[in-house]
Write a structure and sequence with these properties.
The complex is a heterodimer of chains A (about 475) and B (about 750). Chain A has about 475 residues and is of the alpha/beta class. Chain A has 2 domains: about 350 residues, Alkaline Phosphatase, subunit A; about 50 residues. Chain A has 10 helices and 17 strands. The chains are: A alpha/beta (about 475), B mainly alpha (about 750).
């Protein structure tokens, strides 16, 4: 196990800290080698461990748990077993709602094979189905949590217990920033607060600089990005100039303290972001045709479509990790009336996601953008309340496209009722390792010393799924 | 093929052997290097080679001498006063305090300041915040719902009191580990055990066996890190890779807590007050019995439905445990029962939601009737949160393979870190409490003068908070990965002295801040910088950015807005515009006085720290934090530069300046500098600010003509030019943003 040198002082911490939302180039930090000498700028994009196939990631998070059994993993056995309890051969499971003795519920979906590859997709996702030849479909994903908060947390941090850094934070730590005027790790929601809230994009024990930034849908996208309306722009510039004068005067006899200089730069960066932030999410520059492609012309799809389009604008501008929640606040959690719930959410996300894939491809961005689709878990083959499904972390579907992913293949199998993965299973840590792999990072080598352990994104397990790549 | 197979066999066999070795329960042997490791050695008191008035300086000078370095000259009085004030009470000195110190020619001038600060009630507030980082203190559950823990703040109160009363550290440790067993009649000693109670928890958990294990792990990690500076967490799954902490040691430590559960109903009032409360409550209950009975008739069936639905979601074994007659539950089952218990009582409000039609009307009428007795109702009793043992016999603790809750290996008894003390502790159940006595045994061991860790760890923490760097570099990791102490003799001297003084914390502070080492200037020196760039030897005082809490408190103080009252429930200052309410709620405090209390009193919601504090590196409350990250980021700048609240501070600050200085700009600049920095502006600063004010006035004038809103000084005198006023606000806000303001120099 490789271990980084233990940071022994706050200055070491600063050297360790880098570039999430507007961290500052702490160049010329005091170092053991030379007092006034330059230290490598930790903001500079860092070289990956090996050749990356993706520069950015767009993670489409269907929060609440979409039903793999009604979307990507058809199971004829469910029809045969309909109305019967789960056969004893499948063993016992503890579920969130205690439904494991309920009877098997078949799917009501119409299924079709799509594309050259003939991958099965149900009629809930007609537009996304057109892109199967770009996808690796992971049919045997699995996770550890039973309920939403632990599972959403795990899909973000690999642990069902809060407190660890999110994947986007690790990526920011591992790769640095490609656009200093924008946050490197961005989160977008379309409804309520994500279950567990900001813990899911937290930097955990990494320095705060690496944490994700929730872009708000209205007003300034970042908290306190612009001053109150009683402060004009010229006025703000003059304020900053005064501040700079005062700070430089204070530093005149403290030239060795580059931290003071870093703080001066932080204010200049904040000022630049004041302009860059709104520009990045300003969709007025997009054509009507583009907006239509994302479903922004139709009320049902406008909200998620807007976020998908923003995601494209952000990755175009160098943002490395965009996490897009569909149904934020557990929208996909269909304990009852899965028909109503999933019909609505599938419809709201289908055209926007398909539009995103089309648009990325047309702009030549799909090759360098890894698109990931999934929820925190799937759903059970047995019913809940007659017409819903309970949580299923033992076997569920995710897919990836673009960013070096081999299209038109299915990886992994669930058992005949879709309860558990049985072949080529991919744990959340494997999924994370795979995403990191696409970015050129070995998940075992991105380490940060914390409480005596060289912590890494995947904790102690995980293996990149190599066959997913071209 | 055969060769491959045999190779595989050898490899597999090797793994089996390795596993067998890992699982072996026989006493491990440690290497000489491990046995001789500095942190496990008894305290050694060596005489420093150098002499000086303060023993700290002797040790520091000895090391500096060796490199032909020296301490820097003493810092100027204003700098020193600001430094020691921020350090000890977390607030800047007032202009009056600055003048008094600068003009005090007596040799005891500085010592008087130190004594004043240590006696200030704000001292406890300042140092409690450090301790709360270690206790992963939060006032909500975390996980999904992040429900408020209504009485968690009593623990914060306890810590403030303990520091202010200068509770000896050994007592402070004992109270937090086993206050309920040792001082069962003292409610504050019970609240002290809240230290272990601050684990995140999930009301919606189904697998209670796993949940309990996760809580025990949290407590084990926190206790190990806080009191012993040992990263026990690594040993949860296997023997620690770098330190001699055995896999078994993890569960030995955990076993001390195996029988604990939360007790969130510790009466905080005196027995007499409680008696009065009980009488009033009984009277109310008697008077309202008929109407409450009718309410129960309406609600009980609904409650039964909700309860059944809730219970049905548990795995069968948990349902069985809850249904069992109490006498049949074994200690482990009691643990499960206590885990579920808080959720088995359904609140009236929850049940009433299910009522419809006529019943709903009836309920509304009954509620109205009940309200007529409201004046008789004494309300809820004043309660605190704590941890206690649920009985005198604990469920067995097992070593867990790879830390998995149901992968039980051999049973483990309570025990200490094997390398320090392999012997079984003497555990005596307390006579008058239904408790195992296990935690008392742990508390006694930790506070034994012979324990090599406890005093060293606390002395090092205090040193770390004073200098921004510990003598041992990682305050919560004395293991091999934590780095070696720079001045081991000094650490041992201070630790030994600390124990001999009766674990006197304030005395230790005084020792430190009276030293020449603490009082020296932070100015740079090229010769020394070339020799010791990181200032490990302390040839100058290390300059440091203030914590977010201190920056906010200092700004409020300078603005004349700070509410300095001490103690009480937490408050909810405004969130930044558009931040949205976190789950669990954030009802902004109504009065400005409440909103402007010290940052210590800002409600700590586990899943959503107060945004300004989060930006300034307030630690995540999911685990103990012994050393905060120190970052410099744009969001920090945005918070102080663009926040609505920080503009309000500047407006109040400018109003205060105008009131004191009158209309003259030069006088205003002087007053503002004195308030913000404790000093007068120099010529360059006066010129720069005057030029700024005049230019800014014209800029603002244009905005005013265009009908734009201006940010004016609070209570601006009639007749004062608004454009001039807005310019002054801008200047004042830049002072609050400046490096000189946010650094302890």
């Amino acid at each position: 196990m490789s271990h980084k040198r233990q940071p022994v002082s706050r200055r070491d911490f600063l050297q360790n800290s880098g570039s999430g939302l507007g961290a500052i180039a702490l160049s010329a930090m005091l170092s053991a080698e030379s007092v006034a000498g330059a230290v490598a700028d930790p903001l500079k994009p860092k070289k990956p461990h090996f050749k990356a196939t993706a520069k950015s990631v767009i993670f489409l998070f269907m929060e609440g748990g979409p039903s793999h059994l009604d979307l990507f993993d058809p199971k004829p056995a469910l029809d045969k077993l309909a109305g019967q309890p789960m056969p004893a051969s499948f063993g016992k499971v503890i579920t969130a709602m205690g439904t494991s003795n309920n009877t098997i519920m078949p799917t009501k979906r119409a299924w079709k094979q799509h594309g050259q590859s003939g991958i099965w997709v149900s009629d809930w996702y007609p537009e996304i189905a057109k892109h199967v030849d770009e996808m690796s479909v992971f049919r045997a994903c699995w996770a550890d949590g039973l309920n939403h908060v632990g599972s959403v947390c795990q899909m973000n941090t690999c642990s069902i217990l809060a407190g660890r850094p999110a994947l986007g934070a690790w990526i920011t730590y591992g790769l640095g920033s490609a656009n200093r005027n924008l946050p490197t790790f961005v989160v977008l929601t379309d409804a309520a607060e994500v279950v567990g809230g900001p813990k899911n994009w937290s930097a955990g024990f990494l320095p705060a600089t690496y944490q994700g930034t929730l872009l708000r849908n209205q007003g300034a996208p970042i908290l306190d990005l612009v001053p109150p309306e009683s402060i004009g722009d010229n006025q703000q510039r003059a304020r900053l100039d005064l501040l700079k004068t005062l700070n430089e005067h204070f530093s005149a006899d403290k030239a060795e303290d580059t931290e003071l200089e870093a703080r001066i730069n932080a204010y200049e960066l904040a000022y630049r972001m004041q302009a860059a932030g709104p520009e990045a999410v300003d969709l007025t520059k997009e054509t009507e045709a583009t907006k239509k492609l994302y479903g922004m012309d139709i009320e049902d799809t406008a909200k998620f479509g807007t976020n998908c389009l923003m995601a494209r604008r952000l990755v175009e501008r160098g943002v490395r990790f965009v996490e897009l929640y569909s149904g934020s606040g557990s929208g996909w959690d269909a304990h009852s009336n899965i028909e109503g719930n999933h019909s609505k959410l599938c419809h709201a996300s289908d055209a926007p996601i398909a539009g995103l894939l089309t648009d990325l491809k047309a702009r030549g961005l799909l090759d360098e953008t890894l698109v990931v689709w999934g929820g925190e878990f799937g759903r059970t083959p047995f019913n809940e309340k007659g017409d819903g499904r309970d949580h299923n972390p033992w076997g569920f579907t995710m897919w990836m496209a673009g960013g070096g992913i081999k299209g038109g293949q299915v990886i992994g199998t669930t058992d005949e009722i879709g309860l558990r993965g049985i072949d080529k299973r991919a744990h959340v840590t494997d999924i994370h390792a795979t995403i990191l792999h696409a970015l050129g990072l070995d998940h075992r080598s991105v380490t940060y010393l914390h409480n005596g352990r060289a912590e890494r994104p995947t904790i102690v397990t995980g293996e990149a799924v190599r066959e997913a790549f071209v | 093929m055969m060769r491959k197979l045999s190779g595989l066999f050898v490899a597999l066999f090797g793994v089996v052997l390795l596993l067998a070795a890992e699982n072996s329960t026989k006493v491990k042997t440690f290497t000489e290097a491990q046995k001789n490791y500095w942190a496990f050695q008894p305290l050694r008191v060596a005489q420093p080679q150098r002499s000086a008035a303060n023993p700290i300086d002797c040790f520091i000078l000895t090391k500096l001498d060796a490199k032909k370095l020296a301490l820097s000259p003493q810092a100027d009085r204003v700098t020193l006063l600001r430094r020691v004030s921020f350090d000890l009470i977390g607030l800047p000195p007032t202009p009056e305090e600055v003048d008094a110190f600068v003009n005090d020619k007596s040799p005891q001038a500085y010592e008087k300041v130190v004594d004043r600060l240590l006696a200030s009630p704000h001292y406890g507030e300042r140092w409690a915040r450090h301790w709360l980082d270690l206790a992963r203190y939060a006032e909500s559950e975390g996980f999904k719902s992040d429900e408020t823990r209504a009485n968690a703040w009593r623990y914060r109160e306890y810590v403030v009191r303990a520091f202010n009363e200068n509770t000896p550290y050994d007592r402070f440790v004992k109270e937090q580990i086993a206050g309920d067993e040792l001082w069962p009649n003292n409610p504050w000693a019970k609240v002290a055990t809240g230290f272990s109670r601050h684990y995140p928890d999930e009301s919606n958990a189904r697998n209670l066996m796993q949940r309990r294990q996760e809580i025990l792990d949290d407590i084990t990690d926190t206790v190990g890190a806080t009191f012993m500076a040992m990263t026990y967490g690594c040993a949860r799954c296997h023997d620690h890779k770098f330190d001699p902490i055995l896999h078994t040691d993890y569960y030995r430590l955990q076993a001390f807590f195996a029988n604990t559960a939360a007790d969130d109903a510790v009466p905080m009032a005196s027995p007499k007050e409680m008696q009065a409360w009980r009488e009033r409550k009984a009277n109310w209950e008697e008077k309202t019995a008929p109407v409450r009975k009718q309410i129960a008739t309406l609600l009980d069936p609904e409650k039964a439905i909700i309860l059944k639905d809730f219970l049905d979601k548990y795995p069968g074994e948990i349902q069985d445990i809850i249904a069992k007659p109490a006498v049949q539950r074994n200690p482990y089952e009691w643990q499960m029962f206590y885990k579920a218990k808080p959720y088995l009582t359904i609140e009236d409000d929850a049940a009433a939601k299910a009522l419809k039609g006529e019943k709903k009307k009836q309920y509304a009428a009954l509620l109205k009737e009940l309200k007529e007795f409201a004046s008789l109702d004494p309300g809820d009793a004043s309660l605190g949160s704590s941890m206690h043992d649920v009985s005198a016999s604990a469920p067995p603790t097992h070593r867990l393979n790879v830390g998995v809750y149901d992968a039980k290996a051999e049973e483990v008894q309570p025990g200490f870190l094997t390398i320090i003390d392999p012997a079984a502790p003497s555990i005596v159940p307390p006579a008058d409490v239904n408790s195992t006595g296990r935690r008392t045994a742990l508390a006694n061991w930790l506070t034994s003068p012979k324990n090599p860790l406890t005093a060293r760890v606390m002395v090092n923490r205090i040193w770390h908070y004073h200098f921004g760097q510990g003598i041992a570099p990682s305050p919560s990791d004395f293991g091999a990965m934590g780095g070696k102490p720079t001045h081991p003799e000094l650490l041992d001297y201070l630790s030994s002295d600390f124990i001999q003084s009766g674990w006197d914390i304030k005395r230790l502070h005084k020792q430190i801040v009276m030293s020449a080492t603490f009082r020296q200037s932070s100015a740079f020196n090229e010769t020394a910088g070339a020799e010791d760039a990181k200032d490990k030897l302390l040839w100058r005082f290390p300059r440091e950015r203030l914590e977010g809490e201190v920056i906010r408190d200092a700004a409020l103080s300078v603005a004349g807005l700070l509410n300095e009252s001490v103690g009480g429930p937490s408050v909810y200052p405004e969130l930044p515009a558009g931040a949205g309410k976190p789950r669990g709620g954030w009802k902004v405090s109504e009065s400005a006085e409440d909103r402007n209390r010290r940052s210590l009193y800002i409600f700590v919601r586990r899943n959503a720290r107060y945004p300004m504090m989060e930006a300034f590196d307030m630690p995540d409350t999911h685990e103990s934090c012994g050393r905060r990250n120190q970052t410099i980021t744009a969001p920090q700048a945005m918070s102080l530069l663009n926040g609505k609240v920080s503009l309000e501070w500047a407006q109040a600050f400018a109003g205060r300046v105008l009131k004191q200085a009158g209309p003259d700009a030069q006088a205003a600049i002087k007053v503002a500098y004195k308030l913000a920095y404790g000093r007068s502006p120099d010529g360059f600063e006066k010129d720069s600010v005057l030029t700024f004010l005049s230019k800014q006035k014209s800029l603002v004038e244009e905005r005013k003509v265009a009908g734009k809103k201006l940010a004016l000084p609070t209570a601006m005198p009639a007749g004062y030019d608004p454009a001039q006023g807005a310019a002054l606000v801008d200047f004042c806000q830049m002072l609050l943003n400046s490096n000189e303001f946010v650094y302890r120099n």
